[in-house]
Write a structure and sequence with these properties.
about 130 residues; globular
Length: about 130
């Protein structure tokens, strides 16, 4: 019984670190996108389908941004975590967002921002424009 409780408490602590890393990654990503000229429209938009990390405008294009943050290098590049299942989910979320905000059918692009937090160094940011477009 004590082991199960200890395992649960460990899971809760790790979960908190992961969500904190995600928030830090989103903050760094938003600053980088703004530096590149994007206009941040919304952050952490939620629906029953899930969450869009960042919705931005790049000129006339509405950009749905997925942010992936990593504190360690051994998991590979952060953007690699956006697999086919996640891409399909983001497309569904984008459609729900457009409907919820009554935006019609604007040009939409999907970008992925990978943020790495190497120990003792400044974050490294990689913006993949049109990450899973044609």
């Amino acid at each position: 019984m004590a082991t199960k409780i200890a395992d649960f408490l460990s899971w809760v602590r790790d979960r908190g670190r992961t969500s904190d890393l995600g928030r830090r990654g989103e903050n760094v990503a938003a600053r980088e996108l703004e530096r590149l000229g994007y206009e941040i429209v919304e952050r952490r938009w939620r629906s029953k389908l899930g969450e869009i990390d960042i919705v931005a405008r790049d000129g006339e294009t509405l950009v749905v941004v997925e942010v992936k943050a990593r504190s360690r290098e051994d998991y590979g590049p952060p953007a690699d975590a956006v697999d086919a299942v996640k891409r399909r989910k983001l497309v569904r979320l984008a459609k729900a967002y457009l409907q919820a905000r009554r935006l019609g059918e604007p040009q939409v692009r999907f970008d992925v921002v990978g943020v790495r937090f190497p120990s003792g160094e400044d974050p490294r940011v990689e913006v993949l424009r049109n990450a899973f477009g044609e």
